[in-house]
Design a protein that fits this description.
The protein contains 14 helices and 4 strands. With 358 residues, it is an all-alpha fold. It is globular and about 65 Å long.
């Protein structure tokens, strides 16, 4: 059964969250570091944004041969996802820079990439981060009726095979996002059971202005320069790669075998755990020792640390990881982590299989 009202978290006298925040704050104070991004992050952002511009210009205005064009479309898809992970995501959480206008600009990159930064802020920052894996509230686990992501969701016959066909659905995410989901949220004025915050005139203008801009950038101009068939082939290649990568990275963080899907008490509307413990139960890390994975996904492989400290830049997560693990051990809180990327993917496949059969 889905939640029909926003649940409340339990409060405890000896708060795990308070102790954890104290230790992390002490780490930054002793290390003399800012909790926001650093030169490493800015260099990576520069590489990704430059790659996006170079790939787009070469594909649209210089028309490479078919095989090279397809390879560049794959790279463009990986680059767009990379900008989302590293630039937009940190900016949206206010952790890219200590300067507010830089964070706003970084978050705004989503509008150029095809999405809406306004809708993402409500869906991700306000809903997902507060009510992770709570069916009926967290929109990230609502893929109904196509997939069953929680035992509280209805099961249909086709779900028996969702661990096989999920690859195709995940690949469609980016296309659905830019052609349907943003508009659905805009016109319904809500995401799940959560109403959208009131949009100012500037929000409406940005939403529609960039939707028109995206049509020109990703549809009209490429069709004009390379033709409809070449555009369609290239666009689908780029969009499917983007959707698959984004979906996999975010699903590995919350929908694997060991994560929980808490249900609030029907009488009180309260959850059993305090907020921070809830995050530990509903979130998992993957490939924490892989520098390549960490670099590309913007620290989202350290999803536990991100959910506990979303306003801290991902460049600090490997160090914070040690503090969180030690504190979890002291408070007897389970810490979910998969050593390798392939282990996390297999756990997700097993999770989908179990959800489809139970």
């Amino acid at each position: 059964m889905s939640v029909v009202a926003t649940p409340k978290f339990n409060t405890v006298s000896q708060s795990f969250h308070s102790e954890l925040k104290k230790r992390v704050n002490q780490y930054f104070k002793q290390a003399g570091k800012e909790s926001t991004g650093n030169f490493e992050l800015y260099l990576k952002a520069g590489i990704l944004v430059t790659s996006f511009i170079a790939l787009y210009v070469h594909l649209v205005f210089f028309t490479p041969g078919t095989l090279l064009a397809l390879a560049e479309c794959v790279l463009l898809g990986l680059t767009v996802a990379g900008i989302g992970f590293n630039v937009m995501h940190d900016g949206g959480h206010g952790s890219f820079s200590r300067r507010k206008w830089v964070n706003t600009l970084a978050a705004f990159s989503l509008n150029v990439l095809g999405g809406s930064s306004f809708m993402w802020n409500v869906k991700h920052n306000i809903i997902h981060h507060a009510y992770t894996n709570i069916d009926g509230v967290d929109d990230d686990i609502d893929i109904q009726p196509w997939m069953r992501m929680s035992s509280t969701q209805p099961r249909h016959k086709m779900h028996k095979y969702q661990h096989v066909y999920f690859w195709f659905l995940y690949a469609l995410l980016y296309i659905l996002w830019i052609v349907f989901l943003d508009y659905s949220k805009y016109f319904s004025k809500q995401i799940g059971i959560t109403p959208l915050k009131k949009m100012k005139l500037s929000d409406h203008l940005v939403f529609w202005g960039f939707k028109v801009f995206n049509l020109v950038l990703y549809v009209a101009l490429p069709i004009y320069t390379v033709g409809f068939t070449a555009w369609l082939t290239g666009f689908l290649t780029f969009a499917l790669v983007t959707g698959l990568v984004i979906s996999i990275v975010f699903q590995l963080a919350h929908t694997v075998e060991h994560t929980h899907f808490p249900v609030p008490n029907e009488a009180t509307g309260k959850l059993d755990d305090e907020w921070a413990v809830h995050q530990l139960k509903t979130t998992a890390n993957f490939a924490p020792k892989s520098k390549l994975v960490n670099w590309y996904v913007g620290g989202l492989n350290f999803q536990v640390e991100h959910h506990l400290f979303p306003k801290i830049s991902h460049v600090h997560y490997p160090e914070i990881n040690k503090i969180v693990k030690a504190t979890c051990a002291e408070f007897n809180v389970t810490y979910i982590e998969y050593a390798r990327l392939d282990q996390a993917i297999m756990s997700h496949v097993h999770f989908l299989r179990d959800m489809g059969r139970k």
